[in-house]
Amino acid sequence: MKKNIFILGTIAIALTAASCSKNENVVNPGGTMPEGTADVIINETDANYADYQTNWCSYAAAVSSRLKTDAETLYKAWNEGLDGGEAYQVTFKEVKGAYTSPNSCIEQIIDGCIDIANEVGESKIGDPRDKWENGKYTEAVYAVESWYSYHSIQDYSNNIRSIRNAFNCTYNEAAGTHSIAAYLQSHGQGELASQVNAAINTAIAAIEGMAAPFRSHIGNPSVLTAMTACNNLKTVLKTLKARIESFDDETELKAIVADYVDVVVLPTYKDLADANAALHAAVQSLAASPSNATFEAAATAWMAARQPWEMSEAFLFGPVDELGLDPNMDSWPLDQDAIKNVLASGDFSGLDWSGEFDEENEGIAEAQSIRGFHTLEFLLFKNGEPRKI
């Protein structure tokens, strides 16, 4: 998930005004969120298919088309290279560019794991919880990623699985011969390998043990358990990072990097490209023939495409970062007012931007806030279910 700072600012201004009146009715400091509060907050800001049906499905198709292109670009950048440039897998495997040694590549892998463990615990789960504890229920609900589909818990647990895959060099049923975990085992540091895997498993279990849907149970004690587990995982991973300097088997380290690319990164991105192609096809069918059945099929395809994306978040470096593909595909929160304007106008040109990516560019941020997985989620889901005609 790429936090859209520009949109966060505009939403904060809007919610400050909105929540002053809403919170007089819904805030219960020191208690639990009043039953149904999340539904009230969300339904007040939702858009109805019936009001925008002329452009609704066309907008969904425009978004899914760009998701398909972005996923293909990402896979190609790693696997083949773009515009005659070197494939990023070559850069990483052969220790080129910013990478000065195999140890620096291992550090990059571990840093990616630390970043997503921190993001899940502190941002994805912790930020809504902090707002809830301050009685800011409206802001808390808006801070929950993937609340349209009730998919938050699956997203977060798959983020932690991306750490498991990176550390153990596994993906689906495949496993590499070389991994950071195996290196620790073979170099007298098996206890640390066990600690990392135990922390990963504990974090996944704690996240999946959260009361669901998360948007309606932000104040549940299970949320604190999940936050603690993610923080513990981050701490263990930082201990692992501190050991990198002692890794001195250069041949083995390069083999770990190669297996990491071949077994984890490339297959994950290939699945992402394939799943987004299937998602676009499902949304095209929805646009051609809107019905409850085609909405359901598109929603199912969205969930399938979401999985490899969330399982790639331990390696948000390289092309996904440099080309702006992370915020293209996964900006959160959304600018719902801007989305409604697109629905009303049928003008999809604002979804595109050009030139070199600059995360400080507000024009690019505005485009990214009305496209990607979450815009499509908004268009396909309502209260955890596929939308109805």
State the order of secondary-structure elements, H for helix, E for strand.
Answer: EHHHHHHHEEHHHHHHHEHHHEE
Mean pLDDT across residues: 91
From the N-terminal CA to the C-terminal CA, the straight-line distance is: 30 Å
CATH topology: A middle domain of Talin 1
CATH class: Mainly Alpha
Strand content: under 5%
The strand count comes to 6
Globally, the shape reads: globular
Detailed description of the structure:
- By secondary structure, the chain is mostly helical.
- The protein has a single domain (2-28, 37-386), classed as A middle domain of Talin 1 (Up-down Bundle).
- 67% of the residues lie in helices and 3% in strands.
- It contains 17 helices and six strands.
- Strands 1-4 form a two-stranded parallel ribbon.
- Strand 2 (170-171) and strand 3 (174-175) form a beta hairpin.
- The protein is globular and about 65 Å long.
Which structural traits does this protein have?
single chain; 389 residues; mainly alpha; A middle domain of Talin 1; two-stranded parallel sheet; two-stranded antiparallel sheet; 17 helices; 6 strands
TL;DR?
Helices cover 67% and strands 3% of the residues. It has helices spanning 5-26, 37-45, 53-79, 88-93, 102-133, 137-143, 152-168, 180-186, 190-208, 221-242, 250-288, 292-310, 319-322, 325-330, 336-345, 362-368, 372-380; strands at 2-3, 170-171, 174-175, 331-332, 381-382, 385-386.
